[in-house]
């Protein structure tokens, strides 16, 4: 049975299920309230389940996601009036005071526990990299934003690219905290004393092979990753 946990993560709420590994490998919901975060998580789970259905490759595009907070033109203009974004440094500054505590010229944004920078504006919380995309290209991103070099705090526009959730997960460069081998894509099998290399593609796990050492397994994983993960940067 699926169990869900919702907890505070900086300025946002975060929702995960009992299969959670890390933010790269598992669906995670973020929101300004616990219910918004949980709704985003359930939506992602439905997306994954639909993509795994056989022989129905076009079912998902038929379903259109309705954003829980729609940004209108007036709000967009306000963002442009209050925030200045430097695409070369990835830093935001306030050019108008959003509240009494903040001064003009202050850096905008704070670091959440997930490692992403967030900006609070008019009672709403936004991921900084999504605002960066909007201020640069004048359109809200309709997909995930991938940090190319793996540094979630590096919001230079050259380091950002549109990605599906699957593509975004392909750019994982470090193993999860639960991985006891210390190698990405490698898992120790106690029964055989071997190390298994496995990789995910389109939310499905693919077995690569069993090896005597974690290093061997990791090397084979990297070979396969560079072959099938178009967003791989390692």
Tell me the count of domains: 3
- Tell me the number of strands: 13
- What overall form do the CA principal axes indicate? elongated
N- and C-termini, Cα separation: 36 Å
- CATH A-level architecture of the largest domain: Alpha-Beta Complex
Tell me roughly what share of residues is in helical segments: 25-40%
User: Beta fraction of the residues?
Assistant: 25-35%
Query: What is the succession of H and E elements?
Result: EEEHHHEEEEEHEEHEEEH
The radius of gyration is 20 Å
- Main-sheet strand order equals 1-2-3
Q: Can you give a write-up of this model?
A:
There is one protein chain. With 234 residues, this protein is of the alpha+beta class. It folds into three domains: 4-62, no CATH class; 73-164, Homing Intron 3 (I-Ppo) Encoded Endonuclease, Chain A (Alpha-Beta Complex); 173-228, 2-Layer Sandwich (GCC-box Binding Domain). The protein contains six helices and 13 strands. It has helices spanning 34-51, 59-62, 73-82, 128-137, 165-170, 214-228; strands at residues 4-9, 12-17, 29-31, 83-86, 91-94, 110-111, 117-121, 124-127, 144-147, 160-163, 186-189, 194-201, 204-211. The model is unreliable at 53-70 (pLDDT under 50).
């Amino acid at each position: 049975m699926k169990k869900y946990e919702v907890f505070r993560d900086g300025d946002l709420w975060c929702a995960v299920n009992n299969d959670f590994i890390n933010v790269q490998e598992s669906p995670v919901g973020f929101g300004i309230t616990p219910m918004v975060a949980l709704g985003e998580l359930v939506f992602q789970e439905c997306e994954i389940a639909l993509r795994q259905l056989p022989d129905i490759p076009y079912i998902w595009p038929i379903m259109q996601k309705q954003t829980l907070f729609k940004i209108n033109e007036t709000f967009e203009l306000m963002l442009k009036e209050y925030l200045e974004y430097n695409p070369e440094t990835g830093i935001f500054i306030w050019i108008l005071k959003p509240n009494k505590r903040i001064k003009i010229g202050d850096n905008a944004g704070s670091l959440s526990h997930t490692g992403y920078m967030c900006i609070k504006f008019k009672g709403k919380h936004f991921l900084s990299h999504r605002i960066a995309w909007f201020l640069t290209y004048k359109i809200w991103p309709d997909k995930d934003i991938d940090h190319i070099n793996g540094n979630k705090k590096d919001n230079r526009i050259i380091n950002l690219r549109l990605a599906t959730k699957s593509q975004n997960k392909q750019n994982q460069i470090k193993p999860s905290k639960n991985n006891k081998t210390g190698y990405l894509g490698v898992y120790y099998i106690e029964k055989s004393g071997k190390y298994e290399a496995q990789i995910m593609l389109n939310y499905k796990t693919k077995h690569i092979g069993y090896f005597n050492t974690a290093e061997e397994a990791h090397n084979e994983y990297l070979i396969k990753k560079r072959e099938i993960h178009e967003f791989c940067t390692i």
